[in-house]
Amino acid sequence: MSTQESTLNGIISGHEIDTPAQALDGVRIPYNRTYFEPIGVLKVWEKYDGILSWGEGQALAIVDDGCDLSVPEWQTVHPWGPKVRAAWNAFQQNNDPTPVPPGYHGTSVGYPSSICYRGLCGVAYRNQTVQIRGCTIVHLPQIQGEDITLAQALDWIADHAEEHHITAVNLSALDDQHHTEPYPTVLDAPLRRLREMNIWVSAPCGNHQYTDGISWPACQKDCFAIGSVESEKVFNDRFHNTDLLVPAKFTSSSNAYVVGSYMIWREAVEKSKFPWQNYGKTMPDAAMAIFQLTGRDYFDEITGITFKALDLEKAIDFIMERKDLAL
Q: Do 86 and 48 touch, CB atoms closer than 8 A?
């Protein structure tokens, strides 16, 4: 951690943040150096600076229990546009996503992927966000009822994706159960629609140390399930239906890091004219295939499963250097 980072530590509130800062304009300080380093974010920033724009021109839809748009982190306006491009509330069918108690999580969940405030930067810090209140509280009290508003949120995203340049969705809700297979609900049709539109959707597996299943909606067919690894150890909820691990303490942070990574991956594909169709029927499918192909192996002794963990540097190198030509 730099002297400037440690001196300014503690200015910005958020979850799982270790290097908050009130930096000078033009300074780029990682939202969380502890996890950005093993993911490869810092190396990608350095290697492709001036080549990639770190999410500029794309919007991330964040579906959670509401977002307080009055906080300064979401009030920022950059030369490429306002940080919050649009907002929506699936309960009142309006554009006010303000959280209602017991909701609390949605205001900060977008920081790891998207914050760009006083020099503090998320993974894809030049992106824009679309803030959506789609559930009563991120740790769902039950699936029934919550699946309806979450489905309405995803339908709204699909209807407005072109207008707002939405390329990825952080679907951060979880039911804290351990599902071994998909649990069919009304959410499945909009998930399929978004996948076919080449829009990434992922959700956290959960944080209860379950080794025999993961949360809904992460367990659904067209929603990528994101788990976590820390200190060289697989932990938190995981099973055979976990798609990818991302270094973080909580799987909601893992999921936030990977949605930002997808936005960088997508721009790399477009810049390099990479033939992503060789790796999947849709761009999200291809991205996951390449994240797994270039990812690091982690064997979990408890489940007996070898999981893949995101290595963003290797994934972007694979795209930008057209390493597919050597296969």
A: no
**pLDDT exceeds 60 at position 246:** yes
Report all structural domains of the chain as residue ranges with CATH numbers, in order of start.
Answer: 3-321 (3.40.50.200)
Q: 171 with 63: CB under 8 angstroms? A: yes
Helix H or strand E encompassing 156: helix 146-164
pLDDT score recorded for residue 136: 98
Task: Check: CB of residue 242 under 8 Å from CB of residue 259.
Answer: no
Predicted confidence (pLDDT) per residue in 115-142, tens digit: 999 999 999 999 999 999 999 999 999 9
pTM of the predicted model, to two decimals? 0.93
CA distance 258 to 203: 10
Burial class (CB in 10 A: 0-12, 13-18, 19+), 242: buried
Nearest alpha carbon to residue 106 among 126, 133, 86, 127:
133
